[in-house]
Write a structure and sequence with these properties.
alpha/beta; Rossmann fold; about 260 residues; single chain; binds NADP nicotinamide-adenine-dinucleotide phosphate
């Protein structure tokens, strides 16, 4: 019987590429969008989901289980990137970033775990980021959200392993998706940051445009799903693979100089 897989945020980018690849490979693939009627499907059953809402999360997971009787793999991918200097960002904007990128993951995990525990098996794959290892300037709360996903997932790994449930983190570097277009800039600009912020956003846009295709991340997710005993961390793309290694061996000043150059800050 084919595995049932739920991919959050499948209307675009990494989630769309992942859900489509899984459907092509014969899995029963469900994807989500806040407006599923406007999202193209290509073999993926699209469901409504807003990860900020407990009710929406419960209804989405219940629909998957009602249709297939199971949920074998959850891919937590939904997210956005808030940019702007930390001081330019209101607490409300910062909370909203964490509400989607971190508490959205927590809500989804809490909703699927009773079923996975009862089955004694399951996989949870959290799409983190290189930004969960190396903070991006002018993206303090995006970086914080991904650092939070990293710590949370690592704790979960210990807790769920004895119950037969695997937890994996996927950490891509820059991926060429519309995330920059979909994402807000902090609404309270301060002149002190204007020139640097503008340079950073331009560099960020170029880095995304030159990023790896989302299909590379989808292939990694597929391999985790197919693995009988997947590991905790998977880095995708050259930057995501070598930057964390470099960080652990070179002095901070040398490493930070590279990051400053990349983001023109
Ligand atoms: N692009 C990169 O360079 C990169 C690198 C590392 C990690 N990532 C991570 O990869 C994931 C996907 O990013 P992407 O680049 O593919 O971005 P994207 O193309 O903008 O897609 C984001 C997806 O998240 C969904 N989403 C946003 N807010 C949501 C909410 N409140 N509830 C449910 N779904 C929501 C969107 O769906 P709707 O708007 O249709 O609801 C959309 O399908 C994110 O977690 C991101 O942090 C991206």
């Amino acid at each position: 019987m084919s595995k049932t897989i739920l991919v959050t945020g499948a209307s675009s980018g990494i989630g769309q590429a992942t859900a489509r690849l899984l459907a092509q490979r014969g899995f029963t693939a469900f994807g989500t969008a806040r407006k599923p009627q406007s999202a193209q499907s290509q073999g993926v059953t699209m469901l409504a989901l807003d990860v900020r809402s407990d009710d929406s999360v419960r209804a989405c997971v219940a629909q998957v289980v009602a249709q297939t009787g199971r949920l074998d793999v959850l891919v937590n991918n939904a997210g956005y990137s808030l940019t702007g200097a930390a001081e330019e960002t209101s607490v409300e904007e910062a909370k909203a970033q964490l509400e989607t990128n971190f508490f959205g993951v927590v809500r989804m995990v809490n909703a699927v775990l009773p079923g996975m525990r009862a089955a004694g098996t399951g996989k949870i794959i959290n799409i983190s980021s290189l930004a969960g290892n190396t903070a991006i300037p002018f993206s303090a709360f995006y970086s914080a959200s991904k650092f939070a996903v990293e710590g949370y997932s690592e704790s979960l790994w210990y807790e769920l392993r004895p119950l037969g449930i695997h937890v994996s983190l996927v950490e891509p570097g820059f991926v060429n998706t519309p995330i920059g277009e979909a994402s807000p800039v902090a609404a309270r600009p301060l002149p002190a940051y204007a020139a640097t912020r503008t340079r950073m956003l331009t560099a960020f846009g170029h880095a995304l445009a030159g990023g790896i295709p989302p299909e590379r991340v989808a292939q990694r997710v597929l391999r985790i799903i197919e693995s009988p005993d997947p590991g905790l961390r998977y880095r995708v793309g050259g930057q995501a693979t070598w930057l964390p290694r470099l960080r652990s061996v070179v002095p901070w000043s040398v490493y930070a100089a590279g990051v400053r150059k990349t983001f023109a800050v």
